[in-house]
Design brief:
Elements lengths: L2 E4 L16 E7 L8 E6 L2 E5 L15 E4 L2 H5 L4 E5 L5 H4 L2 H7 L5 E4 L1 H13 L7 E4 L4 E4 L4 E6 L8 E7 L2 E5 L16 H10 L1 E7 L12 H14 L4 E4 L5 H13 L3 E5 L1 H12 L10 E2 L12 E5 L9 H6 L13 E4 L8 H13 L3 E4 L14 H11 L1 E7 L3 H13 L14 E6 L2 E8 L4 E5 L2 E2 L2 H17 L1 E9 L4 E2 L4 E5 L8 H19 L6 H20 L4 E9 L1
C-alpha cells in the first residue's frame, strides 16, 4: 500500500544505502526529442513513472494523430508499477496516460497537481477510457511512500499553473527531476520553492534530471509580466476587433489575455475545442478570475461594437485546419476578417512551422488586418522553459553528484551537459542518454548499463495503436504517396495455362498525367507485358513472383524517364 503524509517543512533526511538491489533509471520518451516525456525508476519489484506524455506528429508523419512510447517493458512488468507521478498538465507530460491505461489496467494511482488531475480526468473521458486507477491530488507538501521509494515535490515556475519538480528517495540515493521549469521572479502562478531546492542540495542529490528545452538560449527567460504589459498596450491601441492566438497549452497566457480583455471592457469569443476545454477547466478551478458575462458565443458578437470584441482562437502555428487559418482563407463559417481588425500572434513559430505562419500572416494582411507578431522589438511571447543562466542556478541549488539532461533534442542535451560541467558537475558524471538507455544507481554511485530497454516510438492513427513494423511501413508509403504518387498495374492472367489474357492496364495517381504521357505509358505496358510473359514460361509462378517482377522492371524505367519513385501497386486478376 502507498502511504501519504504532509510535510511541515521538516528536513528530509537522506536515506542510508541499505540494499542489495540496484536502482534503474531510464526514459521511454523525452530524450533526443521534444515531447513524449516518460521516465521510469525501478528497484527490485517496484516501478514508478514520472510523467506519461505524448508527442505531436510532424510533416514526416502523414495521417498520424500522436506518437507515444512503446509500453512493452511496462506491460511485461505491470505488477511492479506502483504509481505515476505527474509534474504538470501539459500534453507532452500527460497525453500518453489514456494509451498507457488502455494497455495496463493495474496501475493503482496517478499522483498529479490539481490542474493536471482535472485535465487527466477530462482526457480519459474524451478517449472513453474507463479505469480503476485512482487520481490523487498532490502539492508542494505531499509525501508518498512505497516500500522502496519516498516521493515528494517542489514548486517550479512554468507556463501552466501547478507545476512541480519531483524528488525520489531510493535506498541507493536521491533522484530529482525538474519537470519543465523556469525561474520567474514575478510569476502569474505560485512562487518557485527555492528553499526546498537548496535543502535538497544540502541533503545530497545523487542523480539530477533537468529540462533542456532552452539549453541553447543564453541569459534568462523573460518574465510573463512583460508580455502582459505589451498585450495590454495593444488592446488599448486597437480601434476595432482583436483576434488573438496562442498555444492552448499556455494556460498562463490564456489567463492574461482573458483578464486583459475584461479590464478593457471587451467580450471574449472563444474559437477552438482545445481552448474551450482548458478555459472551462481553469474557470472551474478558480485560475481565471473574470465574470461569466465576459464570454459570449460567436453569434452574439454582432450585438456589440467591434471595439468591444476579442476573438481568442487556435492556429498560432499556421495549422491548416485551425481557426485562424480558416479565417485567413475566408473559410470560417462564423468569423470573417473586417478591415481594421488587429490580429495578435502571442506565440513563437515552432521550427518547421515558420512558413505556415508567414502564409497565414500574408493572407490576413491582404484582408487589411493589422498583424502583430512576436519579435525582439515586439515581445508578445516568452518561453516556459529555463535558459542557460537559470539552468546554472538550478544546478547550483541542487548540487547533484550525477547529471542527466532530459527533454530536448540531442544538441540541447549536449549543451545542457556543458552548462552543468561549467558549474561544477564532473564531466565523467554527466550522461547524455537516449530513450531506453539505463542509468544504474548503486549505493550512491551511477554508471551507464550496457543493456537497453526497447523504447521505439509507437504511432497512433485514428485512435488505434499500430505496431512499429506496420507503422513504419505505412508512414513510408504515405510519404511516397505525398511526394511521388502511385502507379497501379492491373494484370489479367489464366493461371491454369500460364497465359496473359490482355495487355496490362496502367493507372497513375499523383505521379504524372497519363493523357500527356501516351508514349511513356505504352512503353511501360510493353515492359510489363514482356516481363510477365517471361515469368509465365516457368511452371511454378506465384502471385508474389508476378508482383515483384512488375515492380522490379517498371520502377527503374519510371525513374529513368520521370525522375520519380512512385508507389507501384500490382493488381493480379486470375481466371479460374
Amino acid at each position: 500500500m502507498l502511504e501519504e503524509k504532509k510535510l511541515n517543512n521538516e528536513k528530509i533526511k537522506p536515506q542510508e544505502h541499505k540494499t542489495s538491489q540496484v536502482t534503474k533509471i531510464f526514459a521511454l520518451g523525452g530524450l533526443e526529442e521534444i515531447g513524449k516525456n516518460t521516465y521510469v525508476v525501478e528497484e527490485g519489484n517496484e516501478i514508478i513513472l514520472i510523467d506519461a506524455g505524448v508527442k505531436f506528429p510532424d510533416e514526416t508523419m502523414p495521417g498520424i494523430e500522436a506518437v507515444i512510447p512503446d509500453y512493452s517493458y511496462l506491460k511485461e512488468n505491470k505488477e511492479k508499477i506502483k504509481a505515476i507521478f505527474i509534474t504538470h498538465g501539459h500534453e507532452d507530460h500527460i497525453g500518453g496516460i489514456p494509451y498507457l491505461l488502455k494497455e495496463i489496467d493495474t496501475i493503482p494511482k496517478i499522483y498529479a497537481p490539481k490542474l493536471a488531475a482535472a485535465l487527466i480526468r477530462h482526457k480519459l473521458k474524451d478517449k472513453g477510457v474507463r479505469t480503476k486507477t485512482k487520481i490523487e491530488i498532490i502539492d508542494g507538501n505531499s509525501v508518498i511512500k512505497t516500500k522502496k521509494f519516498t516521493v515528494n515535490f517542489f514548486a517550479v515556475n512554468h507556463s501552466i499553473p501547478d507545476a512541480f519538480g519531483v524528488c525520489v528517495k531510493s535506498p541507493n540515493g536521491r533522484i530529482v527531476s525538474t519537470g519543465d521549469y523556469k525561474f520567474d521572479w514575478t510569476p502569474l502562478g505560485h512562487q518557485a520553492d527555492l528553499e526546498k531546492m537548496a535543502q535538497m542540495g544540502k541533503d545530497g542529490v545523487t542523480l539530477f534530471l533537468a529540462d533542456s528545452t532552452n539549453a541553447e538560449v543564453p541569459g534568462y527567460t523573460m518574465t510573463e509580466m512583460i508580455i502582459v504589459k505589451r498585450i495590454s498596450e495593444l488592446f488599448a491601441k486597437a480601434k476595432g476587433r482583436i483576434l488573438i492566438s496562442t498555444f492552448a497549452s499556455n494556460v498562463h497566457r490564456i489567463q492574461q489575455i482573458v483578464e486583459v480583455a475584461s479590464n478593457h471592457k471587451r467580450k471574449v469569443v472563444v474559437i477552438g475545442r482545445s481552448l474551450e476545454r482548458i478555459i472551462n477547466v481553469i474557470r472551474q478551478m478558480g485560475h481565471l478570475k473574470v465574470k461569466d458575462d465576459c464570454f459570449i458565443k460567436p453569434d452574439e458578437a454582432k450585438k456589440y461594437h467591434n471595439n468591444q470584441i476579442v476573438i481568442l482562437c487556435t492556429g498560432s502555428q499556421g495549422e491548416p485546419l485551425a481557426a485562424l487559418s480558416r479565417i485567413a482563407n475566408r473559410e470560417h463559417r462564423q468569423i470573417k476578417i473586417i478591415p481594421g481588425d488587429t490580429v495578435i500572434f502571442s506565440s513563437s513559430a515552432i521550427p518547421g512551422n515558420k512558413l505556415n505562419v508567414e502564409r497565414v500572416i500574408n493572407k490576413l494582411t491582404r484582408l487589411n488586418a493589422i498583424v502583430e507578431e512576436n519579435s525582439p522589438l515586439n515581445w508578445l511571447h516568452t518561453s516556459g522553459h529555463a535558459s542557460q543562466e537559470e539552468q546554472k542556478l538550478m544546478i547550483s541549488l541542487i548540487k547533484p553528484k550525477y547529471f542527466m539532461p532530459m527533454h530536448g533534442d540531442y544538441r540541447m542535451l549536449k549543451t545542457h551537459k556543458e552548462t552543468a560541467i561549467s558549474v561544477g558537475v564532473k564531466e565523467e558524471n554527466a550522461f547524455i542518454c537516449a530513450n531506453g538507455d539505463q542509468i544504474i544507481m548503486e549505493k550512491g554511485h551511477c554508471h551507464l548499463s550496457n543493456q537497453r530497454i526497447n523504447a521505439d516510438p509507437i504511432y497512433v492513427d485514428g485512435g488505434k495503436d499500430m505496431s512499429e513494423v506496420t507503422t513504419t511501413a505505412i508512414i513510408r508509403d504515405r510519404q511516397i504517396l505525398s511526394k511521388e504518387g502511385l502507379i497501379a498495374i492491373v494484370v489479367s492472367i489464366d493461371s491454369q495455362n500460364n497465359k496473359l489474357l490482355a495487355p496490362p492496364t496502367f493507372i497513375s495517381r499523383g505521379s504524372f498525367y497519363v493523357r500527356d504521357s501516351a508514349p511513356l505509358v505504352a512503353e511501360s505496358i510493353a515492359i510489363v507485358t514482356k516481363a510477365i510473359n517471361d515469368v509465365l514460361k516457368n511452371e511454378k509462378v506465384t502471385f508474389a513472383i508476378l508482383k515483384n517482377t512488375i515492380k522490379s522492371n517498371l520502377a527503374p524505367f519510371i525513374f529513368k524517364k520521370k525522375r520519380r519513385n512512385p508507389l507501384i501497386i500490382p493488381v493480379i486478376l486470375n481466371k479460374k
